[in-house]
Amino acid sequence: MPLTPRRRASGNATFRRTAQAGSTDAETRSEPTRTRSATFSGPDEPRRNGAGTLRHRKWLPRQWALWRRPKRFIGYLLVLETVAIASLIYILGTVSPVPETRDWVGLAILAAGATVHIQLTQRQEERRRNRTRTVLIDLTAVWTFPAAIILPATLSVLLVVLLRIQHWFIARRPAHNFIFSSITHCLSAALTYLTFISLGGQHWGIGGWNSLREFGIVVAAGIVFEAVQIVYVSGILTLSAKERPSIHSVLGSKADNLLEAITIGLGAVTAVLLVVLPPAVAIMAAVTVVFNRLAELDQLQDDARTDPKTQVFNMRGWTESAERALARAAKSADGLAVLMIDLDHFKWINDSYGHPAGDDVLRNLAQLLNDVTRPSDVVGRFGGEEFLVLLPETDQAGAAGTGERIRGAVAALRIPTTDKRGGQTTIAGRTASIGVAVYPDHGTSLESLMQAADAAVYEAKEGGRNQVRIATRRPSPRTGEGAGPKAPSPVDRVTH
After folding, report:
1. How much of the chain is helix, strand and coil, in % rounded to 5?
2. Considering only CA atoms, which of 284, 266, 302, 290 is closest in space to residue 136?
3. d(CA 402, CA 12)
4. Separation of alpha carbons 93 and 89, rounded Å
5. Going by DSSP bridges, is the β-strand pair 414-418/424-428 parallel, antiparallel, or unpaired?
């Protein structure tokens, strides 16, 4: 029989790190944006009163949900906006030249292509916004980045404003989020322009070393374009996070940042077309529409492999990654280990504090597992309060050491949460029972390794909990089928 998750009492309330968890909009990192989007988690904007909708009042500053945020958040945001506005005034007033006719033509071409892109993909973008948990790449860098390196700063900022106005009517996000995002985009475009001209990137080479130099300048400008948005967005996300922020939640995943880099690369291609063959920019409008669809499909695939409550792999995603790692271990004869982590007395947490508190515990445990393991390790949720960690290139001693490190970290974990009445409380002093199975000593298939680790967890529970147990060795070929029953050796215990 295949191994299936044991169904123990656990928090069942669905949680996503999006606006559904108490933020002001339906996206995570989706306002402010880095040509990607991000949400400030905070109080909702008022939408109705007794007389009807308050939509016409949402632009009034005194109605903004911003003022219900912590003072340090408000102060940090206002300082960033002030610095950005001052920088924009300086660049636009003293550095940017007066636009010429060809500059206005370039602006018109980019604005037309961006408008086609935005209007044809608005439904896809809204679906992606509502599903996004960490980062949303909206692909507008395909249009704003070439404007930043080809057009005067005044026109590149104007293009950003035109695109942001369209996004406002499509997404309709809270005013303070929208304004912060828009200012960040404008500053990114202006500083990119300043970088480009400061490095001498005013002329496009046709070949030889000059073209390599121009390419290097474009790369440097792209780095600045992205870095400005990272600094602004990551800082505000860190302050707005209700839970301890992680690199993934603030900066996005590797796939998110790869998509961002590709988008800026497409923007560089658009810039070349705008200089060499302006009508060909229309091709990029079609490319961005198709690319938007591919990004949505990739997001759907990621959602199918991710546990929505803890943001680690679900069993499907974990199994796919673990099977690949096991195949590599079989070919290279490297070691591999599977840990099963089971929180002790998790039902007591739900019964004593409520299911939302249980969910907080699960999310904090998942983040802890990501923090204390290596980037190559694979963390997944098995079911209920049980998690799996696959450790590539690890022997029994290394796996036992990792298990002990996790056990100690769980015991030291302090989790801010709420009780059944909504009051603030902290859950601490929790323990975990951990089972360890090592390839090929305890199994040669993923299922057999999981079975062995699961049995070791039960042994740890029966032995008093809060301990790491090594699984029994599987029978040797001479004591396999036909050799009669063989008494299993005792499960090893890792003392601490």
Report:
1. 60, 10, 30
2. 302
3. 29
4. 6
5. antiparallel
What CA–CA distance (Å, rounded) separates 60 from 426? 38
- Whether the CB-CB separation of 340 and 450 falls below 8 Å is answered with yes
Architecture of domain 315-494: 2-Layer Sandwich (3.30)
**What are the DSSP calls for 94-111, one per residue?**
IISPPP-HHHHHHHHHHH
438, β-bridge pairs: 337
Pinpoint the residues of the chain covered by CATH 3.30.70.270. Answer: 315-494
User: Is pTM beyond 0.70 here?
Assistant: no
The DSSP code for 88 is H
Per the DSSP assignment, residues forming a β-bridge with 33 are 37
And the tokens for 160?
């950003």
Buried b (16+ CB within 10 A) or exposed e, 254-283: eebbebbebbbbbbbbbbbbbeeeeeebee
Bin 151: left if φ > 0, else alpha if -120 < ψ < 50, else beta: beta
Angle (nearest 5°) at CA 129 between 257 and 62: 110
**106 Ramachandran zone, left/alpha/beta (phi>0; psi -120 to 50):** alpha
Question: How is residue 148 annotated by DSSP?
Answer: H
pLDDT tens for the chain, 496 residues long, are 444 444 333 333 332 233 333 333 333 334 444 565 544 444 444 444 444 444 455 556 666 667 777 788 888 888 898 999 999 999 999 988 999 999 999 999 999 999 988 888 877 777 666 655 555 667 889 999 999 999 999 999 999 999 988 888 776 667 777 888 889 999 999 999 999 999 887 656 555 567 788 889 999 999 999 899 888 887 777 776 666 666 666 676 677 778 788 889 999 999 999 988 899 999 988 888 887 777 767 767 777 788 888 888 999 999 999 999 999 998 888 889 999 999 999 999 988 999 889 999 999 999 899 889 988 899 999 988 999 999 999 999 999 999 999 999 999 999 988 888 888 899 999 999 999 999 988 999 999 999 999 999 999 999 899 999 999 876 444 334 333 333 333 344 444 4
DSSP 472: P
User: What string of DSSP letters covers 11-74?
Assistant: ------SSGGGT-SSSSSSEESBSSEEEE---PPPP-EETTEE-GGGTTSGGG-GGGGS-HHHH
Alpha-carbon distance of 433 to 453, in angstroms, equals 11
* Residue 61, token pair as written in the block: 């500053």
Half-sphere exposure at residue 88, Cβ-oriented, CA atoms within 13 angstroms: 20
